[in-house]
């Protein structure tokens, strides 16, 4: 019904006025797009989205469509006179050629819009704020084209050719677009998105009005026909770009391919307008050559252009731009899906190993396991260590993520070493690990029963991940579990507001008769099933050496250690749950700074309590381990509150926990109860590292300002920080600055060389620039090639 409205309104207007609309079509088409911009804002970010459930919203949209259908019906019946005929001012386009041009231009526009959205996700972020802003901005660009360019485009082939040339030039704009900082509000995101989409998409908004004026015949019928061809062009452009061009050619190659096709479209008008056609074809061909020769536009986005990152692998498919980077400042290898740090090899990712081990240790005989979301393969690697597991089904939507697995063999233990395409063979039953490409939710429902399903999808607040945290999804998981099966789900306490965290946690547990909550480091894991698993300490007997060492390092070396990590049942939740039809957590405000940092200690505090005695195991050793883990978790919360206070001293914190003495007391208590525990040691080192680094940099600043500072007071904390985190390039840069200020040139050069080895472009990072500002000669941080070294 909506598709019929515009042509029928044109018919009614022409009958009422007694003349053809002509250039007025552009204004009407633009007003139609203005309404679409308003709908994109209202439905994606405005009050409608923030307060109305999805079912109510779609019902309201249906009523609006019926209202528009009524308006169109009245327009259809209005008047008996024939609409006036349009007389093109220039040689008219034939209806067939006009249809093909509109269809092709729309296909090109949808292809370019796909590229703009992919780049916009990289520049602005892939949450609801960024996506709704991008949709509104794309429609705004088309509106500007229809209203501004449409009325002034020459009638006939010359006008169409001019638009094709402008479209080719606009297709290069994404290569030049840059964003220095992430937007904090919808208005900022929308403004940046308009800057990205405007020059690229505006020429396409004028195509339908320009072609409409260039075809003879009754106005409403012509417009309806053109909109029909616009529809098949949109379908062709979306499918061709997403399914064929981007996976095979990348974003830059896709832009080049559309410019080549634009050159061919211009050449097809050579008989009608020889010179303009030749000029437009040459412009489009040159733009195609430039697009093909330029580096991938995704690589210029801030997350990938970060000088701290050394890109090891980059591949695009229909779902993500997947990049493997070595982060020289943090000293870890990381997998980026678009702009999101999906996983890595750093110290903070140990819980991903627990995602594999925990449910397998609780299940009495896990033989078939499903791992939903591959990431770096860390969880798959953990599962592969268990000799009783006969089959591992890896459910991953992105082929590019699978292709990146060899870069992370240290953490996935080569479990995917068979590589592509063998792992993707549906008939492959010989190998222990099989990757099943596709939507994980659907794949899980279609591939039999599993003893264990374990997963870490994208964030639940992401439009791409939310439907892997809903009631309906857990019903799918429940049906995919064999009798006695267990599911293990990651719930991120650092990334969700407390009220959202409670609901996500509750939704994950509500489907199952039994569930437990475990904390590993700062991350929360839920294990659930139809019945509590039977305690079986014999599972730790006769373990392979590699598995035994891995479990001991994670603090899972015995049944008592596993049970000691279980926490309480969390706060009671009466605010409902998350469903497919109302994914309301997408609509929350974007927050940052201390406000976001405070979510972590609040959410970790909320899960504390007394676990239900489902296992029947009680012993002094278990009680001691529980008390030790509780003290360690309290220390983590105290440290998190101190970090909040460091970011914003005026932010309200938990006065009982945000205290240095309380942190030290809890760490001491945990040490008395747990002894030489790996997680305790890691936290204590992290606390010391941050203290030493901040103290050293602060004193270094005082020294640079000429204040009297004891040299050892500067050097000692920074040297100790470098010992604690030798993989981090920034610490060595500050160490070098301290040596340089104190006149120890040889030591400064050595420390700077280590910093450059860790992070070759460190001089361009904020940490490198700060070290230089504090007194380190810039030449010391130059890459080896710039210094004439091999």
Helix content: 55-70%
Care to count the β-strands?
A: 13
Strand percent estimate? 5-15%
Shape: globular
Spatial order of the strands in the main sheet?
Answer: 9-8-7-10-11-13-12
Summarize model confidence as the mean pLDDT.
Answer: 87
What is the rounded Rg? 30 Å
Could you describe the largest sheet, including whether it forms a barrel?
7 strands, mixed
Going by helix content, strand content and strand pairing, the class is alpha/beta
Low-confidence stretches: none
In angstroms, what separates the terminal alpha carbons?
68 Å
Put simply, the count of helices is 31
Offer a concise description of the structure:
By secondary structure, this protein is α/β, with parallel strands linked by helices. Helix content is 56%, strand content 10%.
Question: What are its keywords?
Answer:
790 residues, alpha/beta, seven-stranded mixed beta sheet, four-stranded antiparallel beta sheet, 56% helix, 10% strand, globular
Describe the secondary structure blueprint for this structure.
Layout: H1 2-17, H2 24-44, H3 47-51, H4 54-77, E1 85-86, H5 95-124, H6 128-149, H7 157-170, H8 173-176, H9 186-205, H10 207-213, E2 217-218, H11 219-267, H12 274-293, H13 302-305, E3 309-316, E4 321-327, E5 332-337, E6 340-344, H14 350-362, E7 368-372, H15 378-384, E8 391-396, H16 399-403, H17 409-412, E9 433-437, H18 440-446, E10 450-455, H19 471-480, E11 481-491, H20 498-510, E12 514-520, E13 523-529, H21 545-554, H22 559-564, H23 593-597, H24 599-606, H25 620-647, H26 660-674, H27 678-704, H28 711-724, H29 729-741, H30 745-758, H31 766-773
Parallel strand pairs: 7-8, 7-10, 8-9, 10-11
Antiparallel strand pairs: 1-2, 3-4, 4-5, 5-6, 11-13, 12-13
């Amino acid at each position: 019904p909506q598709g019929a409205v515009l042509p029928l309104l044109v018919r009614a207007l022409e009958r009422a006025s007694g003349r053809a609309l002509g250039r007025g079509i552009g204004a009407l088409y633009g007003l139609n797009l203005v309404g679409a911009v308003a709908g994109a804002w209202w439905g994606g970010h405005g009050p409608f989205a923030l307060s109305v459930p999805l079912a109510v919203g779609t019902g309201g949209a249906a009523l609006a469509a019926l209202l528009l259908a009524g308006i169109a019906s009245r327009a259809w019946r209005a008047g008996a006179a024939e609409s006036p005929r349009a007389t093109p001012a220039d040689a008219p386009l034939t209806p067939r050629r006009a249809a093909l041009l509109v269809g092709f231009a729309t296909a090109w526009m949808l292809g370019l819009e796909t590229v703009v959205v992919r780049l916009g996700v990289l520049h602005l972020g892939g949450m609801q704020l960024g996506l709704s802003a991008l949709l509104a901005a794309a429609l705004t660009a088309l509106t500007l084209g229809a209203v501004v360019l449409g009325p002034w485009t020459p009638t006939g082939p010359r006008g169409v050719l001019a638009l094709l040339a402008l479209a080719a030039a606009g297709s290069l704009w994404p290569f030049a677009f840059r964003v220095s900082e992430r937007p904090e509000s919808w208005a900022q995101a929308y403004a940046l998105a308009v800057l990205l989409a405007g020059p690229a998409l505006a020429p396409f908004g004028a195509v339908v009005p320009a072609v409409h004026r260039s075809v003879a015949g009754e106005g409403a019928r012509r417009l309806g026909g053109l909109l029909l061809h616009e529809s098949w062009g949109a379908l062709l452009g979306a499918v061709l770009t997403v399914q064929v061009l981007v996976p095979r050619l990348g974003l830059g190659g896709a832009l080049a391919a559309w410019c080549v096709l634009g050159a061919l479209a211009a050449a097809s008008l050579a008989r009608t307008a020889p010179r303009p056609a030749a000029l437009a074809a040459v412009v489009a061909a040159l733009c195609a050559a430039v697009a093909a020769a330029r580096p991938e536009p995704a690589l210029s986005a801030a997350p990938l252009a970060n000088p701290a990152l050394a890109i090891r692998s980059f591949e695009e498919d229909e779902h993500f731009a997947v990049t493997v980077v070595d982060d020289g400042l943090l000293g870890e290898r990381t997998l980026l899906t678009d702009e999101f740090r999906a996983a890595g090899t750093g110290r903070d990712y140990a819980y991903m190993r627990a995602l594999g081990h925990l449910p397998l240790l609780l299940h009495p005989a896990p033989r078939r396991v499903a791992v939903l979301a591959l990431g770096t393969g860390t969880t798959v690697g953990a599962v592969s260590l268990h000799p009783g597991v006969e089959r591992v089904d890896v459910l991953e939507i992105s082929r590019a993520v699978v292709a990146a697995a060899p870069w992370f063999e240290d953490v996935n233990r080569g479990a995917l070493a068979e590589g592509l395409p063998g792992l993707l063979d549906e008939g492959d039953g010989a190998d222990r690990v099989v990757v099943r490409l596709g939507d994980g939710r659907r794949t899980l429902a279609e591939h039999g029963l599993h003893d264990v399903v374990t997963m870490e999808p994208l964030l639940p607040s992401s439009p791409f991940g939310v439907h892997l945290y809903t009631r309906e999804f857990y019903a799918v998981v429940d049906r995919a579990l064999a009798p006695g099966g267990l599911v293990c789900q990651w719930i991120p306490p650092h990334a969700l507001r407390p009220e959202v965290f409670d609901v996500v946690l509750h939704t994950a547990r509500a489907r199952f008769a039994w569930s437990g909550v475990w904390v590993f480091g700062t991350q929360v894991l839920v294990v659930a099933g139809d019945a509590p698993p039977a305690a079986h300490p014999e599972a730790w007997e006769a373990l392979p050496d590699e598995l035994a060492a891995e479990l001991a390092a994670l603090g899972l070396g015995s049944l008592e250690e596993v049970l000691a990590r279980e926490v309480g049942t969390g706060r009671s939740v009466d605010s409902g749950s998350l469903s497919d039809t109302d994914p309301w957590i997408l609509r929350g405000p974007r927050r940052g700074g201390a406000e976001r940092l405070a979510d972590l200690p609040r959410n970790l505090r909320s899960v504390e309590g007394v676990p239900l005695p489902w296992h029947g195991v009680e012993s002094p050793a278990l009680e001691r381990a529980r008390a030790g883990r509780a003290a360690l978790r309290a220390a983590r919360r105290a440290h998190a509150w101190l970090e909040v206070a460091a970011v914003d001293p005026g932010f309200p914190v938990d006065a009982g926990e945000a205290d240095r003495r309380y942190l030290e007391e809890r760490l001491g208590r945990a040490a008395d109860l747990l002894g030489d525990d790996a997680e305790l040691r890691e936290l204590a080192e992290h606390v010391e590292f941050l203290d030493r680094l901040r103290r050293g940099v602060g004193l270094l600043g005082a020294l640079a300002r000429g204040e009297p500072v004891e040299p050892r007071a500067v050097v000692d904390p920074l040297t100790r920080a470098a010992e604690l985190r030798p993989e981090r390039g920034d610490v060595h840069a500050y160490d070098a600055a301290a040596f340089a200020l104190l006149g120890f040139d040889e030591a400064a050069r050595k420390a700077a060389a280590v910093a450059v080895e860790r992070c070759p472009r460190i001089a361009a990072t904020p940490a490198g620039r700060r070290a230089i500002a504090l007194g380190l000669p810039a030449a010391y941080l130059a890459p080896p090639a710039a210094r004439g070294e091999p």
